[in-house]
Every structure is written in structure tokens, then in C-alpha cells.
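Researcher: We're teaching a course module on how sequence relates to structure. For the next exercise, students receive a sequence and then see the predicted structure as C-alpha cells, so they can try to spot secondary structure elements on their own. Here is the exercise chain.
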Amino acid sequence: MKRDQYFGPGVIHRLAEIVEAKHSKRILLVTGQRSYEESGAAKIIERILGSYLTARYSPTASIPDLNDVEAGITAYKEVAPDLIIAVGGGSIIDLAKLIRVCSSHEAAPADVASGSAKVVTRGLPLVAIPTTAGSGSEATHFAVVYVDKKKYSVAHEYVMPDIAIVDPTLTYSMSPRQTAICGLDALSQSMESIWSVNSSADSMRSASEAIELVLSNLSLAVSSPSASPREAMSRAANLAGQSINITKTTAPHALSYMLTMSHSIPHGHAVALTLGSFLEFNSAVSARDINDPRGVDHVHDVIGGICGLMGVGTAVEGRQVLQHLMETIGLDTCLRSYGIETATDCERIVEHVNVERLSNNPRKISRPQMAQILLDLI
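Model: And here is the predicted structure for the students to work with:
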């Protein structure tokens, strides 16, 4: 099925023609509790949808949880929509993806989340409208959900939104901290998609452009936000989403989920904390631990390419660039700040890492090696 994307300041107003073209009458809005109003989306969308029967669902959790999916399905059944519109950050868009998919299946949402029930039906049309510049969820066929604090990723072509409306003006209300954290998520996804064993020419092209945009604009978007860096960061996030949609994430993301669940480190920050460490780790790949069938030289080349985008010659220098960027935009680079203080703490975190994402990393890594990476960040 053809997927459409609209990008640029003011494209939110294209929603009117999209809804009309879908011949919609009943609409389920899935939104953030505060971001919907604060972003300015509510004022515009409510004017556009004034003549339609509309119900709004906003979750209570900040990350997609099975309970929120089930509550969203209840809202879905009450309105019986013919269109779903998601307005918010990556978690909100992921939640809407899951509501759309689970509502079209007889299987329990928990079974869809765990993969024991297969996704076989597309479900209703879904329009995704991001109000942050980070996850690129509007461009991916994945949706993350937590079940009893365990992270699952539902991946299927039917999960991907049918239409994406990426209007940078909806990100103007993001705080400096939120801008920083979301921007690091886009940067991490881009770097990971380049070194992933699943990388392609297309994913590397999109990811490289995203890295350049983030490195040139994130500090400005945090300290002196204006239209230009905001638009650049929205573009970077969308490109990062496009590239990670091809490759899937790797080791930094695999480690990040437990940092978020166990120590409340926001997702983009949690991923970025180990990004430089894995840049350096992957650069030292050898014939003994190569995970990419294209070989050691390929991995060395792509790591060198990432370093080149950062304006440095080595992975050690690249790690320093990333650390300096995090410090510049006001984020901690030390795990001790989040209560991770001992080797035992680090070992406990890596016990629960999803090994599926590790298989995408170009260099094989053991749990003791992951624990050491965390320990070095204390």
C-alpha cells in the first residue's frame, strides 16, 4: 500500500483534505495529555475536525504500556472509528499503531505484543503527526510496548502509519531538555543504522544526512531555538526513522531499555549514554568477533564514515565529540547521576538485555563486555 508523507511548516493544514479524501465520519484521536495543546496541534486539528464525530484518547503512562493499549482499544470500540489520527511523540504514535493493529485482531493484545499472535490484518487507516523531533516513529513499521516492565517490539508492515504529517512548527513548544533528548535519539538511530548488519545504501544515505543535520543544528535548537534548526531537527528525525525502518536498532538501543525502565533515564538520553562507547567498541572489530557477513573491512569503513561525518579521524575522537555534545546540551554523561554505582548494578542491567537487537550489531558482544561498558561510564 502506498504511504504518503507531508513535510514542512504548515503542512498540518493538509489534514483537512486527507480526512475528506478518506471519506471519514468517525475519528479516534490518540494524543499526549499536554503536548496536544502545547504544540498548537489541538487548535488547528479541532477546527479541521469540527464537523466530524471525534473521540480523544490520551494515555497516562509516558511509555507505551499494555494497560494503555487496552484502554485505547476500549476507546476505539466506543467510537467505532473509520480513521485513527495520532498526535504526539514517538510513544504516542507507537501506542496508536498498537491500538490500530490490536483492534483489528481477535487475539489478546498481550499475545500480539509478545508475538505469539501474528499480525495478519492492516486495520484502519492511521495518520501520524509528530510533535517532537526524535523517534521518527511516523516512518517505521515497529511499535514498542511494555508488558509487566518487559519490552516488546511489534514489527510488521501493517504497523506503519499510512500517512505522516511532519510539521516542524508543532515542535516549537519543546523544552530545551526535551529537544536535547529527542535529538540524541535521532542521532543514535542514525549511527546505529549505518553500522547495523542490515544496513543498505538507502539506509546509509538517509542516516548520513540525518547525522549531519543533528550535529549542525541540535545545539542551536536547544540553546537558541528558531525556525531553521527546528525544521532541520524534524527532517533529521524523519530521516533517522526511515533508515532505522530498514535496519532495526543495535546494541545501544538494546541496553537503553533497561536503563529507562530500571533507572528512569529518558529513552534518547539512555541510548546516547553508550553510543560513543559502542562506536569505539565496534571500531575494534576483528575476524574473531565479526557479526556482519560483509566482513571486517566493511565495518571499519562504515565506522570511519561515521567519524568523518563528525569531523574526526578515529572512534576515540568520535566518542569525545559525542560526550562534548551531550555536555553542551546539558545532559549527564555519567551513570552515577542515575544511581548506577557498582559492578553489580551494571551486571543486573545487562541480565535483561534483549539479545535480538545484539544480533544486529556489527561486532559480537558478551554480557560481561556490556557490563564493562556500563562500568566505564560510572
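Model: If you want an answer key for the exercise: The first helix runs from residue 15 to 21. The chain is about 50% helix and 10% strand.
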